[in-house]
Amino acid sequence: MKSTDDVLQLSNIFGLQVCEPGLVLVGFVFSVVWQLLDASLDDEGLLELTPEKKSMWLSVSQDMEIDNPNSSGEKRTEQHERLCKVNTTMAIEIIGEFLQDKLTSRILYLARRNMPPHWGVFIQRLRLLAAKSGALRNSKQITSEVLLQLTSDTRRVLSIKCKTISQQECHAVINSGSLMSSSRECHGATRSALWLPIDLFLEDAMDGSQVAATGAADVLTGLVKALQAVNSTTWCDAFLGLWITALRLVQRERDSSEGPVPRLDTCLCMLLSITTLAVANIIEEEEGEFLDDNESSPTNQRKELRAPRKCRKGLVSSLQMLGDYDALLAPPQAVRSVANQAAAKAIMLISGLTVGNGYSESISMNDMPLNCSGNMRHLIVEACIARNLLDTSAYLWPGYVNTRGNMPRSPPSQMPGWSSLMKGSPLTPSLTSTLVATPASSRDRENI
Description:
Layout (H helix, E strand, L loop, with lengths): L1 H7 L1 H5 L6 H23 L29 H28 L1 H13 L1 H17 L1 H5 L5 H6 L3 H9 L5 H8 L2 H6 L13 H10 L10 H15 L4 H19 L10 H33 L2 H7 L4 H13 L3 H4 L6 H15 L8 H4 L13 H11 L31 H5 L6 H9 L4 H6 L1
């Protein structure tokens, strides 16, 4: 690094007080990108439009006789111009690669923080290139809008917080500028405006006429990550906004009679399956990186690294806060009995009642206490437990269930439902009706 600095004089150019290897590396990467930028401006005659009207990097070019001496001058000139255009376009695309790459973009972010005067000149020239460059307009790899976004404040946040968000998802969120500008002004309930893109996505996903190349859960995963980064919110706020948005979708359809086919089942699938999968993807991604870090850490540091990470903690906090939204949590008639069973399951566990797998579904409404009314949060929690995002300690959250009622202390002698059928009960008309109305549990399906 010292040899590199001696040759390129990076310390003198950037005014580095101490010639440390890390600072020289930042200066070197920054100088490479800057030289590509100035060379591209010079190729298109745009360097004259800068205040300095010259580059501190460029030296006088020297002609090289590399053409066939037998070729005509006109053909040689035409080939030279074509190669120059290709070369300029390639240089601009390489600048974009530097700004998009995970490692070099972070190094350039350090240059931005530690060399603000030089970064200001660099950005001024980059904007000139974006506005005037014909080579950039002809590029199939990058556009002027993308090039400017890669050096914006928003891109800095995304590159640090959401390394794996696709460029398309980031730009879709960034382009909704009104949401970004409102993020500093929204408080309380009005912060739901920050999650409007999720509302729009869920509505679009309900449209069966469009088939996306990427699964809905994967797209929703990237969208939530992008919004969390752009809006600079906690994961608790991000997940809470996601649950509220999906619940609003269900509530809009609960009493809807529009169209020949009711959409309530699809909305419930969006809430309990697609949304839950998106949350699982985010948590698994973070904890996968966490495990990699754990493996590469010294033994004496691994104990500290085993603590839960921010995403899983944010999920727990968001579901605890979700209990305050009573109007959104009222279950549609079609799933009211299932929600009641989910609440009854939690009450039984808290009450210390140990029963078989089919007991919760065998309880009749007469057996349930009056305060055992379930809601959509109970179904969401059960969906998260099924995907190992939570455990049954969620049943102990304050206000999750009311335990003042009394549950029956032993299973009924005759359990209606799939469990009763698996134990050899005769297939009576009443049992047939129960089987049709009640889905089989996972264990019963395996036994079948």
